[in-house]
UniProtKB/TrEMBL annotation:
Protein name per Swiss-Prot or TrEMBL: Vps41 beta-propeller domain-containing protein
One of the Pfam families matching this protein, by short name: Beta-prop_Vps41
Annotated Vps41 beta-propeller domain residues: 2-81
InterPro entries: Beta-prop_Vps41
Amino acid sequence: AVVHSLSSLESYVFDMKRPVRTVAQEPYFTQRTSRVFVCGGMAGKLVLRQGLSRKETVLHSREGPIWHVRWRVHFIPWANDLV
C-alpha cells in the first residue's frame, strides 16, 4: 500500500501482505510524527498501523471485507458486509 499525504509531498510505502481496499489517515497526519493510519480490505480486518514501525493493531475482524473507512476526530467508522 502507498499512503500519500494530501497536504504535503510525502509518500509512504507499506507491505500490508494482503489486498487493501480502503485507507484513512489520522487527522493532522502530516503535523504529527506518529503517522498513524487505518486500513481494511478483503482479509476482513480493520487494522491500525503505527506509522513507519511494523506495529499493527486489529480493531475489527471476522465480518467480511472492509469496503470503506474514514477517520473523523475521535471516531473511525467503517463499512463491511454486515452494514
